[in-house]
Design a protein that fits this description.
Blueprint lengths: L1 H15 L1 H27 L1 H9 L2 E9 L5 E10 L2 E8 L3 E4 L6 E6 L2 E6 L2 H14 L5 E7 L3 E2 L8 E2 L1 H8 L4 H21 L1 E2 L2
Parallel strand pairs: 3-7, 4-8, 7-9
Antiparallel strand pairs: 1-2, 1-10, 2-3, 4-5, 5-6
């Protein structure tokens, strides 16, 4: 009986005192708006959506220590159906002229020409450093041009576009996913315990 009496008193205070009611509705409104903003951001970010579609697990902006006491930054590391995938993401748009043996790549956007260092060498270094940490798991790497890049000439070996990445690494059905997780989970745990987040 005492519990019912206390519960009734609380209900009376909450619903009869307008300040409590208005405050509660205000907090509820803020909560709903924050959830809406978070969902809208994740839906509107094509890179996040792509990573979610292909990765079983993922890490971003991590530091891996190499065998020479150096630090190697990895932008995105994904655990996928095919193994580990390192992504070096480029948001450049326009015609891209690059090659496996070129030191610099040129990106033409309208009247503007931008030069970038060939990202393949650093990508290979990241892959090699990761191989020192975990063996017996496939390690792949790609330079992902996320939007509007046109490779009308020969495309370098590691370059990939979003649709191709999705086709290559799309998540399997649940049964296959469980098998992959069982096989690759020890390697992923080793990586997670050996890297640090880059602030």
């Amino acid at each position: 009986m005492l519990e019912n009496s206390i519960l009734k008193d609380i209900i009376n205070v909450v619903f009869t005192d307008k300040a409590w009611l208005i405050g509660g509705l205000f907090l509820l409104g803020i909560f709903v708006v924050l959830i809406f903003i978070k969902r809208k951001r994740s839906v509107s970010d094509p890179l996040t959506n792509l990573i979610n579609k292909i990765s079983i697990e993922s890490l971003s902006n991590i530091i891996l220590f190499d065998d020479m006491d150096g630090e190697i930054h990895i932008e995105y590391l994904l655990l996928t159906i095919r193994g580990l995938v390192i992504l070096d993401v480029k948001a450049s748009t326009g015609a891209v002229f690059g090659g496996n043996q070129l030191d610099e790549w040129a990106i033409l956007t309208g009247q503007k020409r931008i030069s970038i260092q060939n990202p393949q060498g650093p990508l290979y270094n990241r892959m090699a450093a990761l191989r020192l940490l975990v063996r017996d798991i496939p390690i792949l790497g790609h330079v992902l041009f996320i939007q509007g890049a046109d490779f009308s000439s020969d495309r370098p070996d590691t370059v990939i576009l979003p649709e191709e990445l999705l086709n290559l690494y799309k998540k399997p059905d649940r049964l296959e996913l469980e098998r992959v997780m069982e096989a690759f989970s020890p390697y992923w745990q080793t990586i997670c315990s050996s890297v640090r987040q880059d602030l």
